[in-house]
Amino acid sequence: MSRPQPRELIVIRKEQISPNMLRITFGGENITTIPDNQESGYVKLIFPNEDAKPLLRTYTIRHQRSDEIDIDFMLHEDSGIACTWAKQAQPNDFLLVGGPGPKKMIETSSDWKLLVGDMTALPAISVNLAELPNDTQGYAVIEVISKADIQDLKYPRGMTLKWVINPHPGQNSKALLDQMKSLDWLDGQASIWAACEFSSMKALRDFFKKEKNISKEHLYISSYWKLGSNEDQHKVEKRNDAELDVI
């Protein structure tokens, strides 16, 4: 089945979820071109660029209803084109939206689960937690900029949530790693889902593979951004890193 072509969506409303997280709700007559059951899938927000080809930025579908989708924007200090647009967006504004791409869900055939990420991954982690079976055991370790950014999430009773406060995301690549090292590692096979800033991702990947011997089939790990780089530059870094990462 071919992926739907980019379509123009309309801003329905915006909501400040926390001091550093802004939610934009999109709808309009073209919303029906997005298939059902796409929460945690990604879309490409397409911004016009007078000097060159349009700029594409990747975001996660946080919620989906029959006539709307929610996209959450982490508000960086050095806001790029997407965050700047979101801050200025008003109802009835429109934006070209491509995708959706595949859903990013944690692997399920394991004894326990570990989800870890920063605020850029919070939408995807939230969907993963909400869809886990009620008897799931494990941890979710989530980095946020401030205590006020902690969200009330739905998750199984057997999952323990740990919030890491890091006022300067991307500057301390060990913030999430230090939490990993402090966890009481559970018995049995772990499935791990991790997404965060590029340097933090590399530190976590080394830990999971070299110290915990997590195999490829039980590990999803990705960098969603890189400090000091825009998305196009980050893609190049990810591609180069993938070529060097030999399991």
Automatic annotation (TrEMBL):
SUPFAM superfamilies: Riboflavin synthase domain-like
Classification via PROSITE patterns: FAD_FR
Recorded family membership: Belongs to the SIP oxidoreductase family.
Source organism: Marinomonas ushuaiensis DSM 15871
Record domain FAD-binding FR-type: where: 4-107
Superkingdom, taxonomy of origin: Bacteria
Single GO MF descriptor: oxidoreductase activity
Pfam family name, one: FAD_binding_9
Residues passing through the membrane, by range: none
InterPro entries listed in its UniProt record: FAD-bd_FR_type, FNR_nucleotide-bd, Riboflavin_synthase-like_b-brl, SIP_FAD-bd, SIP_fam, SIP_rossman_dom
Protein's name in the database: Siderophore-interacting protein
